[in-house]
Amino acid sequence: MKPGDKLVIRLILKSDREMEYLHLKDTRASTMEPVNVLSGYKWQDGLGYYESTKDASTNFFISHLRKGTYVFDYPVFITHTGVFSTGNASIQCMYAPEFVANSGGMKIRVEE
After folding, report:
1. Residue 1 lies in a domain
2. Which residues contact 38 (CB under 8 A, 6 or more apart)?
3. Which of the chain's ends, N or C, has fewer CB atoms near its CB within 10 Å?
4. Closest by alpha carbon to 108, among 37, 3, 18?
5. Is the dihedral of CA 95, 101, 102, 103 positive or negative?
6. CATH code for the domain of 21
7. What angle do CA 106, 35, 110 make, to 5 degrees?
8. Which residue, among 59, 55, 74, 72, has the nearest Cα to 22 in the 3D structure?
9. Which residue in 107, 40, 109 sits closest to 74, CA to CA?
10. What is the residue range of 55's domain?
11. CB neighbours of 36 closer than 8 A, spacing ≥ 6?
12. Diameter over CA atoms, the chain
């Protein structure tokens, strides 16, 4: 990767049951600047959710999730060179916090 490259971050969520009131948080590496900076409600693949972009993370708030597989993606631009650690993505049910899952992080190298 080089500064100025546009990447699409893709999160794949698989649920074996219906759930309500979920918070999906994806933390970004410090070299990633999100393209979508305005928060808002979105509809995709039969799922409605609120997407909120913060300084270091993108948050998805889901009021009702049916059983199935869902894909969340958002574009970012690479801004600096170096080696960076990406954060992990986590999802948790707000009313039943014992339902939680986390992804792993990784290191990325950005060269000129």
Report:
1. no
2. 53
3. C
4. 3
5. negative
6. 2.60.40.2110
7. 40
8. 59
9. 40
10. 6-110
11. 51, 53, 74, 75
12. 46
**Tens digit of each residue's pLDDT (9 = 90 or more) over 37-51:** 999 999 988 899 999
Instruction: Name the one residue in this structure whose structure tokens are 């801004």.
Output: 79
In a domain, 20, yes or no: yes
pLDDT in tens, 1-52: 899 999 999 999 999 999 999 999 999 999 999 998 999 999 988 899 999 9
Q: CA 2, CA 4: separation in Å to the nearest integer?
A: 6
- Give the number of domains in the chain: 1
Specify the pTM.
0.91
The two tokens of residue 52 are: 């909120």
